[in-house]
User: Which sequence fits this backbone?
């Protein structure tokens, strides 16, 4: 899709960036010590910390990724919202206060304070780094996706731009500025998302979402055998045909422009429905619906084909409320666009065909996760694995854990967590409205679901689009800052302390090392953000949750609740969890697709490793702890 | 550099009580969450069933899990604060 850079959006975007940099410079003076740099001196009020928690957690994955996934796959995207929020229950009821009582700056401190075993610090530091980097990838992908429509830059420029700003923020000021950036953007995100939802309900649903929405054409034709032989409407020439697993696509030429269509129906008379296509020719040229991108023949999509309100078919509903919105959707039919890729001679074709889907299927699971039609035991296993990772991963995320150390007391840790749950829970309810709004308002870019929420806002006016885009950008900045602080903390405290056990590293040096680490981690994140372009950011975050849940969660829980846990058991648990989760991810079908290989040749058919890696991590901890009991007792 | 608590705070006498309450609430929520996963996995079409205000089970259960997390968080905070205040008052009375 072609995006027109907006001056208003650019100005607001610049204001946000300058404000963030201003806050960083202001707080830089207060972050000279390592306590100030990594944990904001433990002085953040719980109310600020609570909203900052929300600002930190409601990352690009939540705002861009979940809304995008709901816009494409309906209720299945909302499962991420539910899982992300449920994870806070573990954080609040099991982890928040005990961890606050134990730790200082990092997750490793908490573990180390109990066992005083140097291997723990090294392993926990590495695990924090790995999880942070995996969490950073989707944020950077989201940044690239945002900057393209906002400023008209290509994806890679957006990623480098965000990475550079964040590195400046973190390397200058640390946790205090990060906290206030997250507080401001968390509050703004919730406020303006509420405004978008009110706008969606006020507009209601319509079969023609906007005056300039493309009217998709349906032709008729004759089939002989399997082949389309004639098109009834004048001017269309059949150029090529493709058959695949019950699908029949045809390339038609009219007025010098060739485009792909989908043939539907059985018998000799069939319907030929207009599709969207991107064709990469052997010469490297890319044609969007048969023409260069600049000719704007590649349209935004997503509309209701049939709307039923109170049992009657209507063209538009007018204003809806939070209940009638779902009632109408359930009874209606929405046209989604489903992707197919194939080769046509030397050309590589990506095609999105119209897929009218009943509303009741959109509002229940099954469109993305194979739990119903076409499901297998493995696909259900994959789904359960993801839901477990989301539930157990939150409490083990380094940038969430680090927030327990920025408040003065365990009581404040608890209160700020509850405030975060309220704010995050409210926002996640909004995601279902925003995602479904994007699905039905003719704004979707089939090439990238990540832009669904900002593009929906654009349909309500340029000002709302500019504000939402600027907030989304601040969202990326805030979360990336938090992650980089967590990662640099892990390097400066955990890895340095492990590697230089016998040499005292001064406080000043640790801050310096932290800042150098921030620059290095930022650079890695930029590189990975460019490589992973186009993947749904929420899907990528699911991996970060899986690694966190597998590597960190078992050791946190067992340290707190199993007296026989030993330092070596903790090391074995983190190592087993991280290695098994990473191995499964790197050999998963999704990664094989990314490598350009056949998905079905992946050695692990599982995309989400938690269901295997978490039990392995628990088992490693229990076995090694039991085997090393004597040493522990002797030490005691 | 030491790695002790970032900020020194008073001894928490209610920690045992809060841990117990936390684990009970966690178990309750965990069971309800597991029920949600089980229906989604084993009987996804059950999620189409209309439950309340014309909303289907999927939307009702999903929103319910989010609202329940908020309510349980507030209950946990109320119980914890009450216990902390009670123990604080008892200790001050002993002095």
Assistant:
């Amino acid at each position: 899709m072609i995006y027109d850079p907006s001056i208003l959006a650019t100005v607001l975007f610049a204001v946000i960036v300058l404000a963030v940099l201003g806050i960083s410079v202001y707080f830089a003076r207060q972050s000279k010590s390592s306590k100030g740099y990594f944990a904001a001196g433990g002085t953040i009020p719980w109310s600020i910390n609570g909203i900052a928690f929300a600002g930190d957690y409601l990352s690009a994955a939540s705002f861009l990724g979940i809304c995008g996934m709901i816009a494409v796959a309906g209720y299945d995207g909302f499962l991420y919202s539910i899982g992300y929020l449920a994870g806070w229950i573990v954080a609040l009821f099991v982890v928040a206060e005990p961890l606050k009582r134990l730790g200082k700056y990092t997750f490793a401190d908490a573990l180390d304070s109990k066992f005083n075993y140097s291997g723990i610090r090294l392993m926990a530091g590495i695990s924090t780094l790995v999880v942070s980097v995996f969490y950073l990838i989707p944020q950077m992908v989201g940044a690239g996706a945002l900057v393209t429509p906002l400023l008209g830059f290509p994806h890679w420029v957006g990623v480098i731009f965000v990475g550079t700003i964040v590195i400046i923020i973190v390397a200058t000021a640390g946790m205090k500025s990060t906290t206030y950036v997250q507080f401001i953007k968390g509050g703004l995100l919730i406020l303006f998302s509420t405004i978008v939802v009110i706008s969606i309900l006020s507009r209601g649903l319509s079969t023609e979402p906007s005056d300039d929405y493309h009217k998709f054409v349906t032709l008729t034709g004759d089939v002989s055998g399997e082949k389309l032989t004639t098109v009834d409407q004048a001017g269309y020439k059949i150029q090529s045909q493709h058959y695949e697993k019950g699908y029949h696509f045809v390339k038609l030429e009219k007025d010098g422009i060739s485009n792909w269509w989908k043939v539907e129906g059985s018998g000799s008379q069939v319907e030929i429905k207009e599709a969207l296509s991107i064709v990469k020719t052997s010469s490297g040229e890319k044609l969007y619906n048969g023409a260069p991108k600049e000719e704007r023949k590649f349209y935004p999509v997503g509309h209701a084909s049939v709307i039923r309100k109170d049992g009657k078919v209507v063209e538009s509903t007018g204003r809806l409320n939070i209940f009638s919105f779902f009632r109408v959707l359930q009874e209606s039919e929405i046209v989604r666009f489903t992707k197919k890729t194939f080769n046509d001679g030397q050309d590589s074709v990506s095609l999105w065909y119209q897929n009218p889907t009943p509303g009741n299927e959109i509002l229940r699971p099954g469109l993305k996760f194979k739990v119903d039609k076409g499901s297998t035991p493995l696909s259900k296993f994959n789904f359960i694995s993801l839901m477990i990772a989301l539930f157990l991963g939150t409490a083990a995320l380094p940038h969430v854990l680090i927030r327990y150390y920025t408040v003065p007391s365990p009581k404040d840790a608890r209160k700020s967590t509850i405030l975060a749950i309220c704010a995050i829970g409210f926002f996640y309810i909004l995601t279902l409205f925003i995602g479904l709004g994007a699905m039905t308002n003719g704004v979707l870019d089939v090439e990238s679901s990540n832009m669904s929420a900002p593009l929906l806002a654009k349909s309500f006016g340029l000002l709302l689009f500019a504000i939402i885009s600027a907030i989304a950008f601040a969202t990326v900045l805030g979360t990336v800052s938090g992650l980089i602080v967590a990662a640099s903390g892990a390097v400066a405290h955990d890895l340095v302390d492990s590697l230089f056990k016998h040499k005292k590293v001064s406080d000043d040096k640790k801050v310096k090392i932290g800042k150098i680490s921030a620059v290095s981690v930022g650079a890695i994140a930029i590189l990975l953000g460019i490589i992973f372009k186009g993947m749904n950011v929420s899907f990528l975050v699911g991996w970060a949750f899986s690694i966190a849940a597998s590597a960190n969660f078992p050791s946190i829980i067992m340290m707190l609740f199993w007296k026989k846990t030993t330092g070596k058991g903790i090391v074995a648990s983190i190592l087993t969890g991280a290695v098994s989760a990473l191995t499964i991810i790197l050999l998963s079908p999704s990664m094989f697709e990314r490598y350009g290989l056949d998905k079905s040749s992946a050695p692990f058919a599982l995309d989400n490793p938690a269901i295997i890696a978490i039990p392995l991590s628990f088992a490693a901890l229990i076995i090694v702890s039991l085997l090393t009991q004597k040493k522990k007792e002797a030490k005691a | 550099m030491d790695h002790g608590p970032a900020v020194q705070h008073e001894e928490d006498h209610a920690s045992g009580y809060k841990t117990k309450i936390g684990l009970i609430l966690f178990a309750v929520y965990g069971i309800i969450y597991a029920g949600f996963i089980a229906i989604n996995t084993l009987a996804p079409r059950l999620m189409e069933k209309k439950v309340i205000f014309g909303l289907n089970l999927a939307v009702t259960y999903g929103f319910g899990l989010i609202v329940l997390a908020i309510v349980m968080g507030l209950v946990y905070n109320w119980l914890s604060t009450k216990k902390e205040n009670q123990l604080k008052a008892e200790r001050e009375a002993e002095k």
Q: What stands out?
A: Residues 218 and 308 of chain A are 22 Å apart (CA to CA). The longest strand of chain A covers residues 333-344. Chain A has a mean pLDDT of 83. The first helix of chain A runs from residue 7 to 28.
